[in-house]
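Morning run. Coffee first, then this:
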Amino acid sequence: KRRYITLLNHTELSLAPGAKADVTGTWENISVYGNPTYIVKAIADPLDEIDEINEGNNEMSLEIIMNASDLTVAGFNSPTERNNASVVIENLGAQGASDVTVRFELSRYEPYTLHESGFGNRTLSHPGAANIRVHFQQIEMLGDDGFVEVSTNPIIGDSVIETYSGQYKGWTSWVKSDTVYICYFNASFWIDGYDWGDVQDITIPQVNGSESINVSLPWQEYRRPERLNVTVDPYNNITEQREDNNNGTALIYIDLVLKGVEIDGNWIKATVWSDDTIEDGIAFPPPCDFEVSCLPGFTPKIINKSFYGGDTEEVWFNLTEGNFQANRKYNLLVEVDSEDVIEEMDETNNNESLWIGPDVTIVGIKFLNENENEVASDKFIVNKPHFIEVEVKNMKGKVGEDKYACIAAEYFDVVVNMTNETLSPESITISDSLSPGENKTVKFSWTPSTRGWFDVIIKAEVDTKGDVREVNENNNSYLYSGKIKVGEPGYMAKGGFMPMFKKGEEEFNGGIIYETGDTSRLGSDEDRSTLKTNFGDPVPEDARVKLVRLYVYPDYAHWPNKNPLVEPWMAFLPDETQLNVTFNGYHVPLKKPTSFIPVPNDHDQPADIPDATKYNASYATYCYDVPITYYNHSEGANNWAEAERINYARNPDTDYRYGIAGMALLIIYEDDDAPLIRYWIGEDRDVMEAKNGLHKTGLEYADCRREVKFTGVKYSHLANATLKTVLVSYVTYGEGDALYFNDVDILPSGTGHWSKVGGDIALTQGHDNARGWEYVDVHDGINTAGIESRGTMMCAAHAILKLTYYPDLEPEVPTRLNANAGASYNIPITIHNWGRSKAKNFNVTVSINGNEVLNETISEEIKGGDTVTINIPQKAPAVEGVVTLEVNVTVDPENRVNELINKYPRGKQHKSNGEENNIWNGTVTVVVRPPGWDIRHGGGGGTGGGWGTGVGTGEGSGSGAGKGVAGGSREGGAGESGGKTITGRLMKGVVVPGGKEAGGGGKGEFSPLRFFIQLVMLAVAIVLVYAGYLMERRRQTHKQ
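And here it is:
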């Protein structure tokens, strides 16, 4: 490129402030050839002769856009389903161009065979060809003077293009003619084909400035890879900015590529791709159908659809079609266009080979216990059978470069060897046919006989005899090298039943408290030596403390830094030289454990170790009796316990380490206002962990159930039974756990039934969030509980059973009463206490026909088994007849009295829930007699106990069989043994018409009819008295 400057104008100006002037420059004979770039630049004060305040705005430039065409071949487009192959013609200039010629020149190949020898000439012609060239397969001279000429004239030596005087193989130069002459002398030649120039012109009517147009190729059929030359404006009819960008070349081609072969299940998948990535290439679809073959043994697949550049096609061959035999391997060859019907640009990427066959390997080994549950390498049980399970697999899919496992294997052996041990059997033959991807396990048995740690090497091998011809022979062995631990099954629940601290011997009014206060965990890895806990004073204000027992829970006690016996991580229990415990500043003596040598599943000590684990550490419950005088029972009192690990903080590298999971306080108290209770307390520390996915103990759930037995249960039908179970150390690992009582699972299925309440101390939620107290159904005699791990790690520490003999209040109302017309009468309300504990300070409400007639508090005690009666006065109508009253009686509507709740039905309503029988709803029928009959219910007073007439005071004791209805303020003594009548304004004797008190007949004249009626009534009364006597005798016998 050249660069030059032309001066268009130079003018001297004088400008006043704010003035301006126009200066014009003229440019003549501007040229567009060579695609020049013209920039006009104006400069004021070019020599900087004037001092200015701003020298940065003295210059301005502007590029001149040339108004001319600039045609170019911008690119090529491969054919698609919608569009033909095309070339992109673009006008880069600003001036449009019309009648634009586009020339397409294609070099066509024609196979042609011509063999001559000696002397002569031959003609090769392709009419209409723009040019032509010949391909000699061979030229040889028959003598030293021999030659071969290529010319445009049949006369030797005239218009010669090329002369060959020796051996040659290849193309001649292009001859601009549709005919070429081969003249030869004393020579032989062999022609196998020629190229000829196919030239086509297409005219475009208009190409605007900056416009591009797709021009379809004049040929849309494919023959073979060919070079296309495209020229726009070949005759230079259009003036352009550039003439050097009017030409472009492209390769017309097809390139079918086998992009990949893989085994997918029972299928061979071959992916065929038409390459369209050649730069300046036009990728055509195949002009005909073509095959994809897979050998040996498969029928070729035909691709018979349009397959454009960039398209892919998946071809599938079913492996079963190949009829391959087990235990053999095969070499497959997959080829696209296997019959070579399409001439492609590249024929080397049409095939791919791969090996198929079986591939048996050992996936791994597992250790199983006698129940065939998986166990970890550190959890073998001494003197128990175990298995080494070997998992053998016939692989499936790609197992190496161009190697696929997809054929069955059968009849091959598996051998396992273990150092210093003899396994049974020595070898196992797998005779079953293993399909690709199929697994099979075989087991070799072994019984470890010695506790401890052992270094072992286990080698498992498959197909040691080479019966299977595999695609991969490098994965036939599996090696395990490491330590194993053989020990006792400490993660199993202890045998027998949990030791009991209290066995339900006492019965008293009071309660039991298991309190964790503000306790926390002190980890074994902490150097802090002391754990302090404030329990406050949870005892009711007026109660009397009866017993105090302090629990401290050491755990994870082990020797980490040296080998005290025969193995690392040996468990120990801290003694009183290593752990000091005080309560409110007073030293308290340790009651349990009595031995500090931990033993797995030790029934006699509240301690345990898992033993069969590499992390063998102890877990214990330390029990301390606290003298009652040490306990601070007063308003807002604090009660502190302190556990100190002696010399622990000062020597963090001590040979022993242990943690404290927390502390708890057990308090038994007496309270005269509390119900009667009995209680049982179990004390232990039993570490359990059933089989799970993380720590493979291999233990069944039933083996990890801590059993508890509660003996001597009495009066179960009159007791609310609640169970509190305490776990100290509890990790769920997402696994399950369960709580049984009398073999019934009392918690919902799942995991996480216990929750931490302080440190690592966990309780169940309990009924009504009662911090661990769960309702259970008990029966007299022996009851059992079971705390079970279903994969959780747990330490069962306590099981506390409490029987609370609550009161059980129930109202009773007679449904039939008698009254004289116009007279007053009472509706007796009897309140029973069916429970064994007293009840008082509760309300009773009575409504008749929807109107409340009584709402009073019963403040006096109703002892267990006693009753109290309330009389509700009513006025009979003046006319005889029958009156029905809708009566509602509610006892303790505010639920001030905690009542009996269990499964045993009780009382008149025969209900088991103590709160359900607090209401009586019913109809009371009152039979109204004529005035003056003086007919009364038995027990009404006077000197007689039955139906009576005459004058009475109404204050007699009565001996009737039933309750007095209108007899005065006292009930018949024989009617309800032990019953009470509430006296007061509601209990006074009522006055009948005539001013006589009810309860005795007034003095009257003799009447035979009346006398007869009285005799009948007397007989009825005698019968009722006798019947009442029999019923009372039966009830008293039942209560005893």
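The chain has five domains: 71-253, 258-357, 360-487, 500-804, 809-902+916-929. Good start to the day.
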